[in-house]
C-alpha cells in the first residue's frame, strides 16, 4: 500500500521537544514573530541565530521515540512517505527513508542570497558566517510568511496514498493543514493526537492519545485491513 504519514510537533513531544501551541504563543520564551519571520531576522539576527543554535543543541541531545520507530518499521511492508512539519531529523534517525520537510530542516543552513545553496551545518551559526558569495547564512527553515517549496511534492504523495496517517498536529498552520483535501475519496485516514482537532467519521478514524501508544493501534488496524 502507499502510505502517507503527516506529522507535526506532537510526534516529537515524547522525545522531549516542546510543541508550539501549548505555551501561550511563546516558543521557548520568544514570540514566534521575533524568531520565526524574515522581518524578525532582519531586526535582530543575533537573537534569531542564537535561538536556532539553542534548538540545534537541544535536538542533538534527544532521540527518536517509539512512534518515529513504528512509522519507520511500516517500510518493511509498505511504500511509506513521511511528510513532516517538523524541522527535527528524528524520522530520519528512526530509519524512515523518504521524508519531506515542509518547514525546512534545523540541521541545515543556507545562503540568504540563493535559497538553493544549502549546506549541512551541525554547529553554531553566527552573524558574519557567509556563503562563498559573501551572503550571510541563515537556518534552512520556512519562516512565517515564506513560501513552502515542498508543497507540490507533498500534494502528489497525498493524492497517491491509499492510507493517510496524521500524527501530533493542531492542523492550524496552512498550507500544511490543507493537505488532506488532496486525499483520494477511497483513502483510509487515521488521526493520532491526545487533543485531536478532527472527530471520527466515515472518512477518518481518530485515536485520542499520545503518538507512542496511538501509532501501534493504527498499525494493528492496518494489519486487519490487509
Ligand atoms: N503525541 C501526539 N500528539 C501530541 C502529543 C503526543 N505525545 N503531545 C501533544 N500532541 C499534539 C497536541 O495535542 C497538538 O494537537 O501535538 C499537536 C501540536 O500542535 P502544534 O504545537 O500546533 O504543532 P504543529 O501542528 O506541528 O504546528 C505546525 O506551526 O509553529 C509552526 O512551523 C511550526 O511546523 C510548525 C507549525
From TrEMBL:
It holds the Pfam family SIR2. CDD domains: SIRT5_Af1_CobB (cd01412). NAD(+) binds at residues 8-27, 85-88, 168-170, 211. Substrate binds at residues 52, 55. Its main location: cytoplasm. PANTHER family: NAD-DEPENDENT PROTEIN DEACYLASE, NAD-DEPENDENT PROTEIN DEACYLASE SIRTUIN-5, MITOCHONDRIAL-RELATED. NAD-dependent lysine deacetylase and desuccinylase that specifically removes acetyl and succinyl groups on target proteins. Modulates the activities of several proteins which are inactive in their acylated form. This is NAD-dependent protein deacylase. It comes from Ulvibacter antarcticus. The lineage of its organism: Bacteria, Pseudomonadati, Bacteroidota, Flavobacteriia, Flavobacteriales.
